[in-house]
Amino acid sequence: MVDLKSQYIKIQKEIDTAMQQVVLSSSFINGPEVIAFSAHLENYLGVANVIPCANGTDALQIALMALGLEKGDEIICPDFTFVATAEVAELLGLKTVLVDVDPDTFMLTAEGIEKAITSKTKAIVPVHLFGQCAPMESILSLAKTHNLFVIEDTAQAIGSVYTFSDGRKEKAGTMGSLGTTSFFPSKNLGCFGDGGAVFTNNDALSEKCKAIVNHGMGDQYFYECIGINSRLDSIQAAVLKVKLKYLDSYNKSRLEAANYYDKVFSSCKELSIPVRSENSTHVFHQYTLKLSADVNREALVTYMLGRGIPVKIYYPKPLHSFSVYKHCVTIEKDFLITNELCSSVISLPMHTELEVETLQYITSSLLDYLKNLYNPTTLN
Question: Residue 101 phi/psi, 5° resolution?
């Protein structure tokens, strides 16, 4: 699904030098490389403050902690998402409100959110899923009307650009009260381990986040709030500082691969290619197809794996279906869209090193399967 080795080989000298400099400096925690990377990422995103942390899940938790919410406060998030989005709210004693998603973009809509707002609602967590931004203009307008915080989950969309109706452009993660991201190795901007960050233009929230990531400390051994231990180590920051220079070209490579997939599959009645939002660029963290009811997904997965082609299902079950999340507040009777997506989506290999020959093999294999859909005995 992701060829990290080939990506590394192309910039091996830069990466190795950067990592060696950290080792020689022996400044492994909160060293100069962390400060430098934060500044570079602030400049890239056009955001006032970047607060690095240990991973993307921590970033979400830190963002919620910085808002000073109380137990029982409600947080709205999509049902179709990775568990971390809801998990952190539950860990903090908040109430997760799960909402069904748009059938085309698979993300929250302002209309869906509005139905879920109560007097206890304090924040909305839109997930910029698979590489493009949620409909932020309408979500931000709704949040302003109801005096709600907005925390953008940008783990899959760093570098994506959202265009507002007045022509203003903002990068994913910089539009809400706070933005969060993950630097997990397979992300568009990934390190060589775990890492994450919180973004904000609010200086007061930034100072709160900086304290939270370091045990609640302002000055050393002076505790301003309850915190956690969640710091991005210097070696990961050194790797990320190098790779940040290539992020736009990485995203361009992903887009080229997605365009190839789109061209091949656009006329295939058994497949629905990803819908691209008019207001957002797409950085294709994942390339996710919807299969028609005629296609047996399990059989297709088995076939593709048998051809040496890794495919993944993001996500096989909705959050509301798991027993540990059955207590979450829901307004949907059946979660029709999320349930349908969980039974029909499939993601193809998507990374920066996909060559035309590889794309040809992937697409021809899938088309061969579909061509013989009604005569499976002819498949090899």
Answer: -120, 175
Q: What is the DSSP letter of 175?
A: S
Band the pLDDT of 334: cuts 50, 70, 90. confident
CATH number where 186 lies: 3.40.640.10
Asked which of 209, 224, 244 is the last residue of a domain, the reply is: 244
Number of domains within the chain = 2
Residue 162 and residue 20 share a domain = yes
Which residue type is seen at 68?
A: G
Helix (H) / strand (E) element for 14: namely: helix 12-25
**In the chain, what is the greatest distance between 2 CA atoms, to the nearest angstrom?**
71
188 and 283 together in one domain: no
Model pTM greater than 0.85? Answer: yes
Tokens of 210: 């900086």
Distance between CA atoms of 18 and 142, rounded to whole angstroms? Answer: 44
Bridge partner list, 379:
none
Say if residue 161 is in the same domain as residue 183: yes
Q: Quote helix, strand, coil % in the chain, to nearest 5.
A: 40, 15, 40
> Which residue range is the domain that position 366 belongs to?
247-378
What pLDDT digit, counting tens, does each position of 269-307 carry?
Answer: 999 999 999 999 999 999 999 999 999 999 999 999 999
**Closest among 21, 30, 8, 337 to 186, alpha carbons compared:** 8
Note the pLDDT tens digit of each residue in 93-123: 999 999 999 999 999 999 999 999 999 999 9
**Nearest-angstrom CA–CA distance, 197 and 42:** 11
